[in-house]
Write a structure and sequence with these properties.
Layout lengths: L1 E2 L17 H5 L6 H21 L1 H18 L7 H17 L3 E2 L25 E3 L13 E3 L7 E8 L9 H20 L5 E12 L3 H12 L3 H6 L1 H14 L4 E12 L2 H13 L4 H22 L5 E3 L2 H12 L20 E3 L4 E3 L12 E6 L16 H4 L19 E11 L1 H25 L6 H15 L8 E12 L2 H17 L6 E2 L4 H8 L14
Antiparallel strand pairs: 1-13, 2-9, 3-4, 4-5, 5-7, 5-8, 6-7, 6-12, 9-10, 10-11, 11-13, 11-14, 12-13
């Protein structure tokens, strides 16, 4: 658990430490499923001892150590976790759940290829709420109601973002503080219906064709004699465009607002619906619109530029483009929820998207997804722009002239989901962290162990959080998760892109990217603007 922290002065950039505190500080870093498995093993062992005598003793001696070894958290995950995941993927592949064939695909309804899904299976139970006749039908609100998960409404905002390179560290710090105060902490209050926020940053090759057409039109409008005299300069400018094309990236930022289907929300929605003689769906949309309007104003005041609520066509165009980059992000005419999902095949190494069928496009995009495991952000002080190497510092692919592959920017998505934790719960966790840190320090001193600096930094971070979370401070807690999607024009291109992204992540103090081998088709939905990617914890609402 981390908190957003204030900047004490304009000329001083406040840093923060992001660690896997929950994962690393409780009960030896054991997750709840592991604790349950150990508890069941111990209970069965005791039952066997009580009823089976010597046979029960043998069972106990095998069962308890076997369970411990199988579920022991290792750097790459436990043996039991790996086997469970392998079994799950085997079952999915057997049922064809890793394949989706859309209606525009030539193989649609081909029984040899198409499993017949109307929606991608990993999407789960998600559909837009019907706002026809409510006066709010320009909104696009998705209702998520998957078994075992809290029901959630999501809305997508397009955020212009900050102009990198023209801002000093002090201005970055001010913007970060404003985002923390006006957005995160405001949404974390118990009076807010917002439960989660997801920031999605998308980097794609910039489309320079409109610029080239504009230049061409301007040149054609010139006097022929003048155009002839400027011919060398025009050719030189064309060479410049060709040189920068591999480096020209278009960066888009989206914010997903997740609102839980709580009793308080439905009560307020019902009251609004009665007052306006509208449907309950209209009341829900009204509450969501009000929450979104508050966030829009807060982001604009924090200096994040223009913020727009995306309707169905624009939101679905973003979803389609993020799966299949052959479709531009802004190509939204006629795109609906029913037709926005491109055809793909999930494999062990990557998610392979089938060609779009647009003109001569034959690109089979390969996408790989990685997550940042808990505790794999180095426990060092991080400035507000600590993710810059990953967001804007990834170099382009050099291409392969021999195979006719031109250089191209690295297509990638970086998404961070933040579950907001009220201050009272965050204070309880921080108090336990400080107690654990103090106990570790005493134990290290007793044994004469020398700290490598990590424990000291984590202890300092927990002390800072305790200071920030004092009653009356207005600050709350955040539980976060991060995922990265990397896309290449073929398998080799994707591998090279993943290597560049991994290097950039290391420069951003991310010590490990864990690639989702075998279930990239599932993990891709964590990187889309759908509010996915973080399991509920006992600290979230």
């Amino acid at each position: 658990m981390t908190t957003t922290e204030p900047t004490p002065a304009v000329d001083q950039v406040r840093t923060a430490v992001l660690g896997g505190e929950i994962a690393s500080r409780y009960a030896g870093g054991l997750s709840t499923p592991v604790k349950i498995a150990w508890g069941i093993a111990i209970a069965l062992a005791l039952l066997a001892l009580a009823t089976l005598g010597w046979v029960g003793l043998v069972i106990a001696l095998v069962l308890i150590p076997g369970t411990v070894v199988a579920t022991l958290p290792l750097p790459g995950g436990s043996w039991a976790g790996h086997q469970t995941r392998r079994l799950h993927n085997w079952w999915r592949y057997r049922n064809g759940e890793h394949i989706f064939i859309g209606p525009t695909d030539p193989d649609f309804n081909n029984p040899d290829i198409d499993p017949g899904w109307s929606r991608p299976v990993p999407l789960g139970k998600v559909e837009p709420i019907d706002l026809t006749g409510t006066g709010l039908d320009d909104m696009f609100v998705l209702y998520h109601h998957n078994p075992g998960e809290a029901n959630l409404f999501t809305l997508v905002l397009s955020v212009q973002g900050l102009a990198e390179g023209v801002r000093s560290n002090e201005v970055w710090a001010q913007n970060a503080k404003a985002f923390s105060d006006s957005v995160l902490n405001a949404c974390a209050r118990r009076t807010s219906h917002v439960r989660t926020l997801q920031m999605v940053s998308r980097a794609v090759p910039a489309d320079l064709n409109p610029h080239e057409r504009w230049i061409t039109q301007r040149v054609r409008a010139l006097d022929p004699d003048l155009a002839a005299r400027l011919d060398e300069a025009i050719r030189s400018y064309g060479d410049v465009i060709d040189e920068i094309r591999p480096f020209a990236e278009d960066h888009r930022c989206y914010l997903v607002v997740g609102i839980g289907e709580s009793a308080a929300l439905m009560k307020q929605a019902a009251r609004l619906a009665r007052n306006k003689d509208a449907s309950v769906e209209g009341g829900v949309a009204q509450v969501i619109r009000d929450e979104a309007a508050n966030i829009q104003r807060a982001l604009h005041a924090a200096g994040y530029g223009r913020v727009d609520v995306l309707g169905e066509q624009r939101a679905c165009a973003v979803l389609r483009s993020m799966v299949n980059p052959s479709f531009p992000l802004d190509w939204h005419k006629g795109v609906r929820w029913e037709n926005c999902w491109p055809s793909y095949v999930g494999g062990a190494d990557a998610l392979v998207v089938r060609p779009s069928g647009i003109g001569p496009d034959t690109t089979r995009w390969h996408t790989r997804i990685a997550t940042v495991p808990p505790g794999k952000v180095a426990p060092v002080p991080l400035s507000p722009d600590w993710l810059a190497p990953l967001l804007t510092g990834v170099g382009p692919d050099e291409g392969d002239p021999a195979d006719g592959i031109p250089p191209c920017p690295t297509i990638r998505t970086v998404t961070v989901r933040m579950d907001l934790v009220p201050a009272d719960r965050a204070r309880d966790v921080t108090r336990k962290h400080r107690t654990t840190d103090a106990a570790h320090a005493i134990e290290d001193a007793r044994r004469g162990r020398i700290d490598d600096g990590g424990a000291e930094v984590m202890a300092s971070a927990s002390a800072r959080r305790a200071e920030d979370l004092k009653e009356g401070s207005g600050y709350h807690g955040v539980i976060w998760s991060m995922s990265v999607a990397v896309t290449g024009r073929d398998a080799d291109d994707c591998d090279r892109a993943c290597a560049r992204v991994t290097a950039a992540a290391d420069d951003a103090a991310i010590t490990e990217l864990r690639w989702r081998e075998g279930d990239h088709d599932i993990a891709q939905f964590w990187t889309l603007p759908l509010g996915r990617g973080l399991a509920s914890t006992r600290y979230t609402r």
